[in-house]
Write a structure and sequence with these properties.
There is one protein chain. With 153 residues, the chain is α+β, with helices and mostly antiparallel strands. The protein has a domain of 101 residues: 2-Layer Sandwich (Gyrase A, domain 2). Helix content is 41%, strand content 21%. The protein is built from four helices and four strands; from the N terminus they run αββααββα. β1 and β2 form a beta hairpin. The protein is globular, with a radius of gyration of 16 Å. The relative contact order is 0.20.
Length: 153
């Protein structure tokens, strides 16, 4: 078991290593980008990467405090489902109005990597191999799809 400070340092080390690994990758639009804190430009719409001691996930997360707005955003993604899946080249899980780890109601389109731990350095290559192609694919999707979400700005 790690202390809170140790756990924080390990998490920071992983995300720093991941950031350095992916930094040379340009966005779909040919720009330098902060992959770890990806900015969609839409309030309450994030591309979220998360890893803990049991699993990891990458998600499109809609966190608008108004559930009706979340649902509208979710429906817009449903309209673009074929474009999204073409970019991702895999099916993700679609979750409307679930509770996140902080008990907030969010909606997600998510892919999970089970049985991995950010606290095991031996798992880091698997985590990086999981996150990298998916965040790049989300960026490729967003390069085309972002204009469909202008109404939510």
């Amino acid at each position: 078991m790690y202390s809170k400070d140790q756990a924080s340092q390990i998490r920071q080390s992983f995300w720093t290593a991941f950031g350095q690994y992916i930094a040379p990758q340009l966005s779909a639009d040919g720009l330098r980008i902060n992959w770890i804190n990806y900015k969609t430009g839409i309030k309450h719409l994030n591309f979220k990467m998360h890893a803990d001691n049991r699993s990891a996930y990458i998600a499109i997360e809609m966190s608008n405090p108004d559930p009706a707005m979340q649902e509208l955003m979710f429906e817009q993604f449903i309209e673009l489902k074929n474009v999204l899946h073409t970019s991702l080249q895999e099916e993700w899980d679609w979750q409307l109005h679930i509770r996140d780890e902080n008990y907030k109601t969010v909606s997600r389109i998510i892919s999970v990597l089970p049985a991995t731990s950010i606290f095991k350095q031996d798992d880091w290559p698997a985590l990086i191999s999981f996150f990298k192609p998916r965040i790049i694919a989300l960026d490729e999707f967003w390069s085309v799809a972002q204009y469909s979400f202008e109404i939510f700005k």
